[in-house]
Structure formats: C-alpha cells, structure tokens
Amino acid sequence: MGPVKRKTNIMAQSTYSSVVLAQRPKANIVPGETFKLKQNPMISESDLKDGQVLVETLYLSLDPAMRGWLNDTRSYMPPVQIGELMRGIVIGKIVASKSSSFSVGDYVTCTSGWTELSIQDAKAVTLLEVPPNGRVTDALGLLGGTGLTAYFGMTDIAKVKAGDFVVVSGAAGATGSVACQIAKLKGATVLGLAGSEDKVKWLKELGCDEALNYKDPQFKEKFKAATKDLIDVFFDNVGGEILEAALSRAKPHARFVMCGAISQYNSAQPVGPKNISMVIAMRIRMQGFLVFDYIKEYPAARKELAQWLAEGKIQRKETIIKGGLKAAEQALVDLYNGINTGKLMVEVKAEDAGIESRL
Ligand SMILES: NC(=O)c1ccc[n+]([C@@H]2O[C@H](COP(=O)([O-])OP(=O)(O)OC[C@H]3O[C@@H](n4cnc5c(N)ncnc54)[C@H](OP(=O)(O)O)[C@@H]3O)[C@@H](O)[C@H]2O)c1
Q1: Which residue's CA is the nearest one to ligand 1's atom 21?
Q2: Cβ distance 298 to 139 under 8 Å?
Q3: What Pfam families would the database entry show (predicted)?
Q4: Is the CB of 259 under 6 A from ligand 1?
Q5: What is the CATH number of domain 10-140+318-358?
C-alpha cells in the first residue's frame, strides 16, 4: 500500500459526497444495494445562518447499532428513512463558522452522518479535547460512546466490585475491551470472550485473567471449566448462544448487564436464550441500558477514563479503514464479521484503500 493521498481542500471541489439508505436489508447489509453514494452541490460559508458551523468529516464511527437503525420498527430512535442520509457520529474539523463558540480549525464531534461536509447548529456540536497520552480519535472510542458505555455498564449497572468473577462477551471490541479493563481496575477477576486467537492473545495482554475464542470447537467445555466458580457479572455485547451459555453458569443473584446482542442484529429471525428461566432459578438481575441515559454524567466519566489513560492504567486499540466514505458500507459489513480489534472507524479524508490497526 502506497502513501495515503489526502484531499487537501474540500472547499475547492464543486461537489461533496454523502451516503444515503437505498434499500432496507432483510438480513445482512448488501454492499452495492443497501446504501447509495451521492454527489451534492458544494456548500460554503455563505450557506451558514447565524449560530451555525460548516463541518468537514475526518473520521466516521461504525457502530453495531447502525444495523438496527435500518429496520422500520419501534426502537429507541426512529429508523433512517429510504433516501435519507445515513446516521452516524463523526469527528470533524470546523471549516467555516458563524458561531462565537467555534473557530475555523477546531476539532469537534457531532452526529452529522455519512457525509464529507455538513452544516450544523453550534449547539449540536461538541468541542473535542485531546487528553494527555490521547489522540483525536479517542473521541470516538475510549472517550466516546463505546468507552462511556463500558464505563456506565460496568460501574453503574453491574456495580462491579473487588472479588467479582466477571465475564465479558465481545471482549476484544471497542466496548468490551474497555469493560474488561474497568472490571480489572475495580479488583475483579475477568474472563473475556472473542472470535479469534489473536484477539484472545490481546485480551491477555490487556490483563484479562483468562480469555477464550468462542469459535474454538471445544469452546463449550472450555467455558464450563473457566466458569467453575460461576459468574457474578456477565457484561453481554453478543446475545444468542453466548448469553445462553452464560445463563447456564450464573451464580445466584448474578448481575447481567445487557449492553448489546450483535449476534442477532443481522438475523431475519432473532432467537433468545432457551434457558431464560435461569433468571428465576438463580434470581438474576438482568438489566438493559443505553449510554444516552447517562448524558449528564459524561463529563465526569470522560475525566476518569482520561485520567486512567494518562496514567497508563487503560489501553485501547483502533482499527481504521481508509478509502473515504465509499469504504464505509463494506466496513460496516465487516464489523459484524469481526474485522476490528478495538474501535472501528473510517478515515473519510483518505482516498487510497487500506486498513490500519493502532494502539
Ligand atoms: N447499550 C448501549 O448504549 C450500547 C452502546 C454502544 C454499543 N453497544 C453494544 O455493544 C456491543 C459492542 O459494540 P461496539 O461498538 O463496541 O462494537 P465492537 O465490539 O467493537 O465490534 C463488534 C464485534 O462484535 C463481534 N461479533 C460480531 N458478530 C458476532 C457474533 N455472531 N457472535 C459474537 N460476537 C460477534 C465481533 O468480534 P469477534 O471477532 O469477537 O466476533 C466484532 O468485532 C454491540 O452489541 C453494541 O450494539 C451498546
């Protein structure tokens, strides 16, 4: 792979790209059918009203929840409509401002969607601060939605404490890898579950006491042996068979943190665990949550996560797909195939294809 070419000045172009939903998938996203790349007439400072900013997208966050936003069903937010810009959180740079809160060159985050350029109300944009030892992209990972989800799920929903035996599914992903490390910081013993030997190795480097590859043909037996003392806390990112396995190994009064169910998101016929009655038999407290429930507590949580990062107490990995917006659709498909370790994002400004993994 040669050096990454960059568009130096998007404002010099006559159009900019965005991605819209073309068709609702019935199961898996179909590359070339589900989304459509669109060219739009250029926008500039003269299109801004007072209190607005023009944001150029640098990085686009890819999130498992995106698959749910394509379904025309009741959920925690309305579905993306056919022909509508695909929703997404981005890191961007202010290229023009009619707001006293932002200057040209400021790095920001906002939910501008899958677009190279957007006009935003200043109140919908957050100024990005890079902490010591941090980098700009932490705003989508450790200090963004996934890091915060791990933080609130582990500290508030699980109320993890020293001596707990904690199992985390999807453990090598953006949320799971932070959840494992927070549990360790709180004095728990941690078993992480992930889908490859490389991910298992990384989880051990992160400090997990044990890690297992759920694709190993002997996984069931190994999981039973690794949970011989039974589970106090299960932090679930995956659902399906792994949730069923965890229910079968729950201690009385275990806490089950229902964070996500990625194994079911692309299924035309999602399935639940057959042994759900273990919730009764073991008096399990099973609680779902959304990170947005904690919006008022984000600053305090970010402060603590940034402190752990600065002190070297927490690590993170990023998987960055290059190739601009046109790479986003395939990258989202690959998220469900486990292409990423840590946080998956698309570098929107890089035109050459490629993939970068960085600590
Ligand atoms: N409740 C909330 O507010 C909230 C907020 C953010 C995220 N979430 C949820 O948290 C979970 C993780 O999200 P994330 O953004 O951190 O993504 P992520 O874990 O970084 O990426 C998804 C990972 O899921 C794993 N996976 C995919 N299909 C699977 C399957 N069939 N069985 C087991 N594992 C599978 C893959 O890793 P392997 O190689 O290990 O299979 C993949 O790398 C998702 O379920 C998401 O919906 C919830």
Answers
A1: 173
A2: no
A3: ADH_N_2, ADH_zinc_N
A4: yes
A5: 3.90.180.10
